[in-house]
Amino acid sequence: MMRKGIYSLVIIILLLTVTGCSVSNILPEYQDENLNPIAEEEKDLAYQPATPSKGGELKIAIALPDSMNPLYTKLKDYINLSSLIYEGLFSFDENLNIKPALAESWEVLDEGKIWQIELRKGVKWHNGKELTAQDVKYTFDLLYNHLQQSEEEEGSEYKSSSIFAKRLFEGRNIARMEYVINNPYAVTIILNEPAGRTFLEALSFPILPALNDQDDQNDEDGEDIDFLIGTGPFKVESANIEIGGQIKLVRNDDWWGSEKPYIDAIVANIYRDNEESLEAFKNEEVDLVDTHVIYADFYGMSRQGQTFRYLTQNFVYIGINHQSPGILGDNRVREAIAYAIDRKDIVSRVYASNAQAVDVPIPPDAWYYDSDLRMYDYQPLKVHQILEEAGWKDSNGDGILDKNTGEGFVDLSFTVNAHMDNIMQKETLNLIVEQLKDVGIDVKPRFLSWDDYITALEEGDFEAVLSEHYLDITTDLGFMFHSSQIGNGLNNYIAYNNSYLDELLDRIPVIQDSQEFKDTYKKIQKHLVEELPIISLYYKTSSLVAAPYVHGIRLPRDLMIFRDIEKWYLDR
Q1: Predicted pLDDT of residue 154
Q2: How many CB atoms lie within 10 A of CB 265?
Q3: What are the chain's domains?
Q4: Helix (H/G/I), strand (E/B), else coil: 244
Q5: Looking at residue 539, what is its pLDDT?
Q6: How far apart are CA 476 and CA 491, in angstroms?
Q7: What are the distances in angstroms from CA 113 to CA 21, 177, 198, 323, 478?
Q8: How many of the other CB atoms lie within 10 Å of CB of 469?
């Protein structure tokens, strides 16, 4: 099964026989602790007291929530905040390993068509009631119904439904969720086709308490503050949901986790936008801001504070039109281009070092990433060698390499589409033009309006294109590269078709064993760096800007900045 992948949104630079299976062979047994150099470099920027102090109030900045229901929100700030209140059956660690949260154990039957999830017992909602299977099924049904409603209202599948609904249902043929007889702490999920370990990733959606029919009618969207009840380490004490208002959370002393948070309360002040939030940090109105701006360090230094950079899921690359590749159809030309682009120079000059160079659309801090396959650092001498062996030379002395095809001379020249209104994209492409010109490759920028840009992708009207994907945290690249996705909207708009890669991508959604999963992704990564269906550039980073007295922050991740919040503490 292939995910349809619309949720792994093509942003494109505008700013998802009966067998038994146990925890041990689904989850990875090891991880490389050196895969997150960005966060590792900066985690000890501030003085760390020897003994964490308990108490205090942490003030953070967020934008106005679009919905108070954590299942439906699309706002990054509120997804992060709601992770303090609500929890999923599973969660992720800093290397994207899946780990149990509200789920205690699970069993996989019928070759991956039946998944039985056993819940932790004794987990309490913030109102004192106990978590049961009824809550899990209620939440599951909410997601399914929301997805169906979105399809009907928009007339286009998955167009506006929640990230959690899309993560769970896209590309999976789920039949139903059932209760387990005589066990109020277990549910069974039945699929019409097998699923693998990526299914556990999809079960990371926040679980809500089951409401009765009257509650549903009164608060269908979860906007009433009385219904903001979760199982997480913090609970809602009060909320004023408007610009200038705030949401106050207090420590949940009945939380099931082995370590209770040191911090007494977290107050989220609501601002108009991220710029206003950063000014609030500068003026000492708040202690923490999550920001994507490349000058975040300025605000950190304004209070002698800390800046924690972390990888986002925003992946930037050059797409090749494999339907009509022209000179880019030669793998040696693509290889030369990959060596000729100085990614580190682009990252430094355009993004002020707020990005990380990569060769594949796989986060370099993910447990299944293979660092041995990092290949394409800037090597101009290697570029000349590759192109000379491929028959390219400057026969007329104009500085551009050319080649006699038998029907005349052809310059080593191609166009690259880009979005004309995005300054950083324009600067990136202009640098690429300069870098490739230095090695005799002529790149002609083609700057288009947003509408024309998208139309060109849909119609295949490009030789190459500077693009960006927001890749969902779940691990399936089929929407980008599988041949079955050609013609499916903006999925695989590069029209890449390779039967070997198709076979590997088909295996990913059904693999249950962690080592097999990692081995398969190694083969996928090897294919991508050797065949170069795209030329990868970098992953963008964001930053947590924190006051100097906020301690315990370690290795934040996109949409998971409050991971290990129980270890955070204040010293002032």
Answers
A1: 54
A2: 16
A3: 23-233+253-269 (3.40.190.10), 312-541 (3.10.105.10)
A4: coil
A5: 95
A6: 13
A7: 12, 12, 13, 37, 21
A8: 24
φ, ψ at 96 (rounded to 5°): 65, 20
**What pLDDT is attached to residue 35?**
35
Write out the two tokens for 291. Answer: 């920001």
Instruction: Give kind and range of the element (H or E) at residue 349.
Output: helix 343-351
| DSSP summary character for residue 355 | E
- 271-276-282 Cα angle (round to 5): 115
Q: Do the beta carbons of residue 469 and residue 11 sit within 8 Å? A: yes
The pLDDT value recorded for residue 238 is 94
pLDDT for residue 518: 94
Segment holding 331, helix H or strand E: helix 331-340
- Residue 130 three-state SS: strand
CA distance 369 to 453: 32
Residues 92, 98: contact at Cβ < 8 Å?
yes
Residue 400 tokens read as 């551009």
Q: Are 466 and 428 in contact (CB under 8 A)?
A: yes
Q: Residue 13: in which H helix or E strand, if any?
A: none
Torsion angle defined by CA atoms of residues 117, 133, 151 and 454, in that order, rounded to the nearest 10 degrees: -50
Q: Which amino acid is at 389?
A: E
Among residues 524, 461, 536, 469, the alpha carbon closest in space to that of 498 is found at: 524
> Among the residues of 409-565, which ranges form H helices?
423-437, 450-459, 478-481, 499-507, 514-531
Count of CB atoms situated within 10 Å of the CB of 212:
8
Distance CA 354, CA 310 (A): 9
Query: For residue 375, what pLDDT is reported?
Result: 85
For residue 50 the two structure tokens come to 């020897």
CB 486 within 8 A of CB 519: no
CB 447 within 8 A of CB 420: yes
pLDDT means per 10 residues, the chain with 572 residues, are 39 34 39 38 50 93 93 92 97 88 96 96 96 97 82 52 84 91 96 94 95 51 67 96 96 93 97 93 95 84 87 95 94 97 95 94 92 90 96 93 88 96 93 97 96 95 95 86 94 96 96 94 96 96 94 90 94 86
Nearest to 197 by CA among 265, 100, 98: 98
Please state, in angstroms and rounded to a whole number, the distance separating the CA atoms of residues 45 and 352.
Answer: 19
